[in-house]
Amino acid sequence: MNKGYHPRVNQQNAMKHSIILILSAALLFGGCSVNASASFKASSNKSASTSSSGSSAGRATRPSTTERRPATIVISSNRPRPNRPAPATPSTPERTRPVDRERPAQPPAADKGENPNLTEAPPEERPEPVVEPEPVVEPEPVVEPEPEDEPVFGTPEEPEPDVGVFVGNIYFLPKNTQRLPNFDELEPVGTIYTSKLDIAPRQFDQGFPGISDRYEWFGIRYTTTVYIDIPGKYRFRLNSDDGSKLIIDGKTVIDNDGQHAPLEKRGEIVLEEGVHEFVIEYFQGPRYQIALQLFVTPPGGEEEIFALE
């Protein structure tokens, strides 16, 4: 018996078995196919038959001339790869919405720090704030500008030629003058114009705008021509402070001369139809009261201010 054979065969078989396992694992994960199992079985069977033949030949007188060939491992890359299932990807389980069940109504949760078993106290009634009415702001009174003082005895502006006016020449008189002067002997300091003489008793301190600020010790001589279309007796009334005179066609109709408080006098004259000359002389003594008014009552008419308008 060739005892040394079998151990070598066994060792060879063990090595082949290990190699098959390694290649199988490599092919499984690397994609290669190894046909090791079939080749190993074929080689084992062949070796076994050869060994049997050798043993028999050893027992016989004829030696075996058959050579032992090593086992062949066939690696084929053309073998179709087994269909490996793809590794399963872990999937997130789909959340299902729980079925809503009818729940009994719950009381509202109590605020933090409050006992839900306690009954909520009614809100404290607070008095409404007293709103004081806004003070009524009265509008400031509109202060109208004081009108400029109108000329009392007349204006220095000359009117149109066709307008009937009294033309008054102003004269300065010496202090303590007691009666009307002779105006023909004096020089006028200015001229004023007016359509009527209607200066009721008043205080006078404004002077003569545009001419002089003198308000005492002065005299004025007014002259005008009047057309009388209704002949007859005309009655006149002259009120003055201080002295005054009414002269018509050179005849004194009213003499109200001298220093005095407001004083009136009357006179009358028959006037024919036509043009007549009127002269009114006036003077102011000490300050401050003045007055000069001329009234007329025509034939069959009523008394009125003698006006040339």
The CATH topology of the domain at 166-305 corresponds to: Jelly Rolls
Residue fraction in strands: 25-35%
Class of the domain at 166-305 in CATH?
A: Mainly Beta
Structure class: alpha+beta
Strand count, sense and barrel status of the largest sheet are: 6 strands, antiparallel
Find the CATH superfamily of the domain at 166-305: Galactose-binding domain-like
Radius of gyration: 78 Å
Note the topology.
Elements: H1 5-30, E1 33-35, H2 36-59, E2 74-76, E3 166-172, E4 190-194, E5 198-203, E6 218-228, E7 232-241, E8 244-248, E9 251-256, E10 263-271, E11 274-284, E12 289-297, E13 304-305
Antiparallel strand pairs: 1-2, 3-4, 3-6, 5-12, 6-11, 7-10, 7-12, 8-9, 8-11, 12-13
Question: Your description of this structure?
Answer:
It is a single chain. 16% of the residues lie in helices and 28% in strands. The protein is of the alpha+beta class. Among the domains are: 5-76, no CATH class; 166-305, Jelly Rolls (Sandwich). The strands form three sheets. A six-stranded antiparallel sheet has the order 4-3-6-11-8-9, with no helix packed on it. Strands 5, 7, 10, 12 and 13 form a five-stranded antiparallel sheet that branches. A two-stranded antiparallel sheet has the order 1-2. A hairpin with a 2-residue loop joins strand 8 and strand 9. The longest helix has 26 residues, at 5-30. The protein starts with a helix and ends with a strand. 14% of the residues are buried. Residues 1-10, 31-68 and 70-78 have low confidence and may be disordered.
